[in-house]
Write a structure and sequence with these properties.
Elements lengths: L3 H17 L20 H6 L21 E2 L7 E2 L6 E6 H7 L4 H4 L6 E3 L18 H5 L5 E3 L6 E4 L2 E2 L9 E8 L13 E7 L8 E9 L3 E13 L3 E13 L6 E13 L9 E16 L7 E3 L26 H6 L25 E2 L10 E6 L7 E4 L28 E2 L2 H15 L36 E18 L4 E18 L6 E4 L23 E7 L5 E19 L8 H6 L1 E20 L2 E3 L1 H6 L14 E9 L22 E12 L40 E13 L9 E21 L5 E18 L21 E14 L3 H4 L7 E13 L14 E14 L4 E16 L4 H4 L7 H20 L8 H4 L22 H19 L4 H7 L5 H10 L39 E18 L2 E15 L3 H14 L18 H18 L11 E10 L8 E10 L3 E8 L9 E10 L3 E15 L2 E10 L6 E4 L11 E4 L3 E9 L1
Parallel strand pairs: 6-9, 15-22, 17-27
Antiparallel strand pairs: 1-2, 3-8, 4-5, 6-7, 8-9, 10-11, 10-46, 11-12, 12-13, 13-14, 14-20, 16-19, 17-18, 20-21, 21-24, 22-23, 23-27, 24-25, 25-30, 26-29, 28-29, 30-31, 31-32, 32-33, 33-34, 34-35, 35-36, 36-37, 37-38, 38-39, 39-42, 40-41, 42-43, 43-46, 44-45
Helix pairs in contact: 12-14, 12-18, 17-18
Amino acid sequence: MKRPVARAGALSVTSALCLAFSPYLAAQTAPAAPAASTDTPAVEEETIILSPFTVEAAEDKDSYKASSTLAGTRVRTDLRDIASSISVVTSKFLQDTGATNQQSLLVFTTNTEVGGIQGNFGGLGGGNGLKENSALLKPNQNTRVRGLDSADNTRDYFQTDIPWDSYIVDRVDMQRGPNSILFGVGSPAGIVNTQTITPNMRKNEGKVENRIGSFGSVRYSLDVGHVLVKDQLAIRVAALDDDTKYRQDPAYNHDRRIFGVVRFDPKLFGDSAHTSIKANFEKGKVDANRPRTMAPIDQITPYFATSSSNPLDPTQPAINRQAYDAWQFQSTALTNGANGNANMGWIGGAAVWNPWMNATMARLGSADPVFWYNANSGAPFLVQQSNMSTRWALSNTGSIDGGIDGFPFAHQVSINGYNTYTKNAEIRANALGLTNPYPGAQKNYYKDKSLTDTSIFDFYNYLIDGPNKYEKEGWTSYNLDVSQTFFNGRLGFQAVWDKQSYDSKQAMNLSDTPFISIDNNLNLIDGPAAYGMSIPNPNVGRAYVGSSGHYGNNESFSERENFRLTGFAEVRASDYMEKSWLSDLLGRHVFNVVGSRDTKNAESRNFLRYATDANWALMNNETANISQGFRQVDWISYLSDNLSGRSSAAGAGISNINARQSPSGQTIVKYYDSHWKRPTNPADPGYVNPATPWRNPFYTNLANPPESYESENPANYVGWTNTAVNILNADNGDINQLYTDGTKLKTVIDSKGFTWQGYLWDGMVVPTYGYRTDKVKSYSANAPANSVTGVASMNYEILTAPSDVSEGTSRSWGVVVHTPKFIKKNLPWDSDISLTYNKSENFRAENRVDYQGNRIDNARGETEEYGVVLSTLDNRVSLKVVKYETTVKDANLSGDPQVSTLGSNTYWLYLAEAWGAASATANMIGLTGNDTSGGAWYWDWANQPVSNGGANTAYGAMPRDPAGASIDAAEIAASLAWINSMQPQSFYDAYGINVNVANLKSSAASGNWSAPYSSYIGGGWSPSSGPGGVQAAGAGKIRGMYPVGTIDNVSEGYELELTARPTNNWNVTFNASKTTASRTNLSKALSTFIESTHQRLAGPAGDLRTWWAGDTTGTFRNNYNNNVYAAYIFQLEQDGQSASEVRPWAFNVVTNYNFSRSFLKGVNVGGGYRWQDGAILGYRLTKAPTPTDPNNVKLDVNQPIYGDSEAHADLWIGYERQLSPKIKWRIQGNIRNVGEDVGLTPISVQPDGSPAAQRIQEGMTWQITNTFSF
């Protein structure tokens, strides 16, 4: 029977809604249509229509196969009618596999990767100096889709920082590739969306679950729902306590959460309308000390080598358990005056230079306190200054010059990693005219090697850090959802408010790339034997780890608030005409409009975990700035006894740190007091004239030792003594005195979208079109720092005016063509064949800047996909095959621009400009006689021995002899060249570097350098601090953002997904992917910046010496070339190469069978098999001669180096039964990685194909889950 009244009402309300949203229709992306309903009006009135804004978990009950999703168009749509690549993980799949979070799920899904010890890739890149800080803090974000980038995480389709857990998840929808219908602003790789649970409106239900697992893991969860008014009001509460332990003792992850949701469905507008109000809340916290995925860097096995490591140079010395005196290690370089390579590890001349040796132990490069521990104790056995500070020392005129020239430069020595070793070996080979064994080493082709022998240190079973690092997360989430539909779901709107607060904190003692080495210092750093100061090192031969509390400590806070209004209307041709072939042709159409405002307030803070208070620096006449190194606290922890009597490191059984080592409070520190101890009155007994000539006994091996005076005689100074020092500790309440920088960034995204989905020819052809506009405003501010201490204050406000504004328009369209009915009815087993096409785009509005502070255009993602879908056996079996190509233009060069744009030394891109300005300033102030800070150790090049590029002039003395004057002229030329070509003021202002370009250029032009230091460089800097005393206020950020380089990413391949339920008891899913992902087109802005600086430093400006007056090999030219330009060339050579760790082929299969009869009734058995092809880990080298370097080599993209393929099997068996009419018990045991031992998997290789960095891959683990449902 026809119902013209109902039809007229439907049309009028539909028209009203369309008119209400008409302002958006010209500028929006379109969501997808609700599930189809019958065309017969009488049936429409009698059928219960599900809300178009909800997908009920019950629809997919007991199945791996989902039928509908919100991911296609934001309203409920049949998966068969969506052209884009969407996969749905049902609660049944989560239950069978035991997956509870991102890390345990994404190893099973199509063309996805996730890091971690249970993951299927490292996610840390393939270069040298891999860092896993971010992955340790937020492992759920260490993902990759289609070999491109990490996916965005969303929670009920709102972007989120909160890591999801299955205790409140009904299902997981995964979109691969960009889809602007969902998010015009977001990751082009796609999204991972979790749908949170809602109450059952018809019956009370609940469950209590306990899980025990490997290594003592215990998990409890509770989920209880209660109906207050049937079909109208219900609540549901869930809670979680998951204490996961790991093989690496004492690693853990303790996750505690509580969640509540209420749903109210009042009957307000009659049977054809539906009103629903839902509100949910979650609060959670995670305390963790997560396991490291990287094996420690091997800096221990070279200690035991008895012969050359270089087959092309048998004369290259081996360490062979030798111990070195740090003072002699450096001083013998002076015998090699002809080569000019001082302090580079020379032992008795170039012929026996040992490339394995390093002039600095751990981070002991300054003169700060070092806490020396045994691994099993939290109390240091010694606290001593790492090196002498001589800032109170006198010149021969009796004024303070800050140096005791009688002491040669010396640091405690150590063993290099493989990367530095190959660079040194290449330099040695070139210097001696030998065949270069490591071509291209200066380009970082050779990487540090991971330790592989667990008999040396068992990194599988022990966390090297022990209890000395932590990761913390906490959050609250609120969501209010009001939806209203009319006319049996044909017209409706949804208004949602979502608010999330999230914070995280991370602190560590070890660096993000820890190493294990051996102390091969013969003596302590107290002084050379020539002065009777030598003290034998009681710890020689002991294995150790070491670092400082200076790096890797951070906390962040974010608050997201989102408002979204969605409206839809369904229009049918049959509303306007009689049922006919024409009405079938025109079909029905679903229009969807959406408007939203997403606001995110984010704050990040970096801090020192430990540092001295300012009194320590002032007592030593050093700068009190907390970021300049002197106030940092270093530490060394010994892990073994003396190993020098062993022939090999194998079997050493080295310990991890197994005590909490946390410097704090008043501590007695042994330090060098550089005050003059002689009388200053010539009439007093014991008076010593600082100007009296003095022959330094240290240089008895030199025919013409440097000219010196009593002012340089160590015997005239107080020397080593003890003092009480206050150690600040962030963990003990001192964090406000330890902040080094902070940034606040507010982002507001206003979005409008329109979607149309049509069902033509009686649903045979389903086109979808979406249009969307997004406008992004950013507001930022950097924390102000105290001009004396450098401590950043967190009490500051964000800018009221936007620092950046960007806009973007994105479109999506696709079509699905099903088999015509007249053909389908002749196909066997109710089969259907569908063809799909999808083209979609989005952009990532990050308000990025390049390294010169210029704005970078938004990264844009675009995907094009062709697919075929086969459904058969009454839709019990579905197979989808897709050919795709996804491109991302102007993507970030790396995931962590702070550390990885050009490797771990990315900071050289901007700090070289700061340090060069400081170097030139110190030189000019000193050479014009205006230095009163004691900085001659830095600026007086002519004072250095000939081997250090000097002329042996008196320390800071004026006027010069001819040789000294010649060196002064070169120093002045280099300094003025730098100043006259330095970056503009806007560059320094962008980074918050306190340099006054105008004043420097003015003094350079006039020659008048009498102005105070602060007129050139602020922040309390003086030449005595050296260039490292100048830092960027925002730790490298510009307007609250780390600058980035960009590159284009391309991924293409095939994806296959098969989901089957042959019987009600049997589920099967299979997926496979073929992926080629590459990177090309390094950003022009970055290239121009680096090339122009490289060209500038090729001239006199590059002659500036970086760290001290005799640093002839450490010029700005050499340092820039080694730290920036070599890494840049490496990036250029990777143009067109595969992205790191991309596996060309991969497949996964999961199946489960439930027995419903016989004695096996209630039993379920299942398993999974995961296979991955060998990943491309690197490339071999090929010769590429240039006019200036006939021996130049480069990476050869035609010679890829593959890793091994991997295969992993999982098994499970379960049983369930009714314990009573209302209580069901279920038990299931899962084994993952059946029969496997824990092992290593390479993630990078050397050019010869041998492994470099390797990640730990977990072996077999188990878990048993008991569930009581009621």
